[in-house]
């Protein structure tokens, strides 16, 4: 943010000379009161806008009852001076402030805050999904965008209300039209017994993906304070209670869920029941899924950049349009009349408009700074001075304490995780419109300039996805510490994600999920220790149930499994501060026999750095090709899901585990006939195979009759091109693979050899839904290895089959999960398992002739390594695979329970390194193809853990 201070001659006293223009401006018009807002009678009213139903729920924490308004700075705006849509800040050092802030807030900060129990309102759209569908209750019919849907009412007593509601079909929005004043709402009286009436919204979901679910209603004192919503999704049903006396006439976010394309009431619907204890009226209006594309008609041309609408996803637009779309009157977002100027004060004016009397709220803004050569972090509170480095605080009481808490946490964390010399620029006052009490006098407010996007030394750090996650966590922890200090309460921070997660079959219908607590962090970066856990289950690795609580143990035995049918699991830690981000996803498919399955999937892909981020061509908007740190396009930590299909097709049962669980001995390899080691784009800094893993695999192969499948784009680059003598020997002697070339320079592969005739496949170039493969290794066959997959341009082998001295190694220089279509990938992996004669359930099912019931005969199927590794903490269930379970659960067909949304539960990632690929620098090798911005955040949001190979002090044991 450049400090541009306009001055003018005071017309009241020209002899006085020039004075800051801000001192001459007329008073700002007050923010209007919301329709139906409860009176400000001085009585505090703890927020109960959205709470879990039927169970205490994991979303209780240090910020329960608190409201946090979050501003992610600028965004695409119609800029009259340029005659086109433009971001408010340019591309400098490959990052754009307008995009960086949104990526950090939407992917990380919101999740941290919600996992701690906070209600979060954002001034910009939070849903990064470019698809959207709206189903409206007006006239008992439907208005939709991006498709169709259906609204229906059941039971008796439904009636129109006197209050206005949302009306769809008005986009593109022109002028100051307010969609929340154009429609009607429906209502029915609440009953204290079982529901007697309900409304159902069934959207026609435009595409598979993660969607925030929003509802709207008209608020009033006679509304139910516990309206009962049920969200039906592929993972089951999630029930919530919504206080309809607050925050009506806008979009209320209920959480983030996975939905499948199409219209299916059984797997995609929102239902509002009239049962509750509070009485009053239950009001039905509209339901929205997704963020969608910008749909405000502000442009005056017809091209890509000057057309009526921005042509960008809504989450990339500035707050001014999102605020109008959220139902605020024009006096909130249009108080000046110029979109870019309006956007500044609209952010805090929206917070004041949205805020309800008696609520305990704060406002925080994420910005980055300019110009070069400045460095470091500075934080601002309101004062009557220019941003000149002075301090004269005159803002809302508490703003200074809020600013101090966030600032100290942020600077300390950046120094601990990235740069010990990171500059603390200090806390200042300034007459910034965003924190001006004339716009928002209802809550403490602070604006943070996280770093300098104009300065290369800061920008290279801020480009890292992990930096954004660490900084987002710093904001959250600073807010927790502010409230704790103000209220005289102890600081309670939500835990980090569990580690070393694994799941092993116990019998045909049971499996044991086990994990280790997050490693202790000596740098004070992470959260507090977990006091309990929650295990989530899924049938497909996408839609999740509401979880099962586990106390006093680090394992859970689950029932209700069936041989050959996969089940997926992830684990979170819980304490008084809140809930952690989730672990890596693991999966199991039981066999017909007792004990572990005959095969093991090992997840070893943890890389998440800026060199593996895609670049997006935004040159039409004069932005070049900036780095986009969109985690779903880099590493979702769920790629076990993409490998399972081949095993299921081949009828091969399997267990699965994280690579660190194998490395420390939580999972013993000896009992498995086959291993599929998933490496994605793991490379030199993360290590494809650590020295310990190489020793374990070598010993396992030496048992005879073993089959090792390995896939990764940087495997031979790491082991041979950049590896030690021992690394190279492992690749040559155990895998039969040598380093042929760093990249094949093609996006296609063709099965060959014994697999000739199987379908050709494409390698994900960034638009395939997994991740862009920057450098697919060309493999050189050694020791009699033969090619089974070739690059389609004749560059050489993409896959090798090697018969060792008693074992088979199948090695791919491209991640299997990044081969498309999925059906061809599944067919190839299935064919590999069948050709290698990996034990499988016979086609006729359990008990039929030819059944393979477990691992090789010379190995005890139940054997595990029960010795505790040196770094195990007390109480960790190291012998989990042999110990009696502390809890057993049978998952019902439908679960009605606490909210389990993807926003608050993000996919995990390890500690991130700033790795640059020597042969080209990763993203620089190309840009994301047109239309390749895939932003349906998977598994909400995620996150970092200690390094596997180099076991020095953990600089940031984040995950989430």
The assigned CATH architecture of the largest domain is 3-Layer(aba) Sandwich
Count of spatially separate domains = 3
* Fourth-level CATH superfamily of the largest domain: Zn-dependent exopeptidases
Overall average residue pLDDT: 86
Low-confidence stretches: 43-48, 52-58, 141-146, 851-960
Report how far the terminal alpha carbons are from each other.
31 Å
What is the CATH C-level name of the largest domain? Alpha Beta
What global shape is seen? globular
- The tally of strands reads 47
- Structural class comes to alpha+beta
State Rg: 28 Å
Which range best describes the helical content: under 10%, 10-25%, 25-40%, 40-55%, 55-70% or over 70%? 10-25%
Oligomer: single chain
Task: Please tell me about this protein's structure.
- With 960 residues, this protein is an alpha+beta fold.
- It folds into 3 domains: 278 residues, Zn-dependent exopeptidases (Aminopeptidase, 3-Layer(aba) Sandwich); 157 residues, Sandwich (Jelly Rolls), CATH 2.60.120; 277 residues, Immunoglobulins (Immunoglobulin-like).
- Helices cover 16% and strands 25% of the residues.
- Strands 45-40-39-42-43-44-37-36-34-35-26-27-30-46 form a 14-stranded mixed β-sheet.
- α1 crosses α7 and α8 crosses α13.
- The longest helix is centred in the middle third of the chain and has 23 residues.
